[in-house]
Amino acid sequence: MIEYIYDVNSQTFQDLVIQKSYEKPVAVDFWAPWCAPCRTLKPILEKLTESLGGEVILAKLNTEEEPELATDYGIRGIPNVKIFKDGQVVDEFTGVLPEGDIKVLFQKYIQTELDFFFNDIQGKDLELKKAALEKEFEKYKTNLKYLFEYGKTLFLTANYEKALEIFSLMPKLNEFEDEIIDMKIIIELLHWSTKDPKDKYEVFLVQAAKAYSENRMDDTLNFLTDLLFRKKEYLEGSVKKMAIALVHLCKDEEKKASFFRKISMAINA
To answer: What gap in Å lies between CA 232 and CA 238, rounded to an integer?
Structure first.
């Protein structure tokens, strides 16, 4: 028996599926002897699992012998394949799919070398994290997630021009675009920190930019919302975008809700 392809039952399910899924993704094939599609799917799953070299574990469960487990996991039709990761079902499909489609599904949950790299730098001091990301640039410069993490870390360490340079390497439509737009808007605000205000409204922008550069988030948002109360469409709505972008990046949920209310009051005043 191949060590990453095996049968499971109610006695072994906890150890061989739930616990194992904390190490690697486990695909559980819920099948029955009388099911013709199950017989079609079985060799596809086994061949694919072998080709992945143990990166995914295949556990086969006979629903005729284990009806309670099948009921517990809501099996209404077979074959049904559920993918477990970190003790939870994270994906599934019912019926017979082409091998290529199943491979794409499995690969979503396989930890790559880059995943291990991200795990290693998680929680590190931002400067150390930036240095580690910079060191791997040539290796991962075409990877979307890497570019986003590198750009965001540059932003958080006030390397704004370099952050913009990294973001420019990413396609405009991507899963991180909303957060990137927020960071670009804040960088736009920071340009005001070196300007001489020409009117009473620009005073608020300069003060907000200086407050942000000194890590005074509350003051930054107060200056922007005060400006919104006085002239909400100032700079063609850019001030509103700056305030909202700052709130999006705020980690304190209570404070975030409070500032959203204040921005809403200013906009609707």
So the answer is: 9
257 and 210 co-located in one domain? yes
Active-site position among 8, 27, 38, 57: 38
Residue 67 lies in a domain: yes
Rounded CA separation 59/27 (Å): 6
Report whether 26 contacts 3 (CB < 8 A): no
pLDDT tens digits for range 52-104: 888 899 999 999 999 999 999 999 999 999 999 999 999 999 999 999 999 99
State the maximum Cα–Cα separation within the chain, in Å, rounded to a whole number: 81
Whether 35 sits among the annotated catalytic residues: the reply is: yes
Whether residues 22 and 97 fall in one domain:
yes
Whether residues 20 and 99 fall in one domain: yes
250 noted as active-site residue: no
Domain count for the chain, please give it. 3
Asked if 95 and 83 touch (Cβ cutoff 8 Å), the reply is no
Bigger pLDDT: 90 vs 115: 90
Instruction: Identify the active-site residue in 32, 35, 97, 170.
Output: 35
Write out pLDDT tens, residues 148-174: 999 999 999 999 999 999 999 998 888
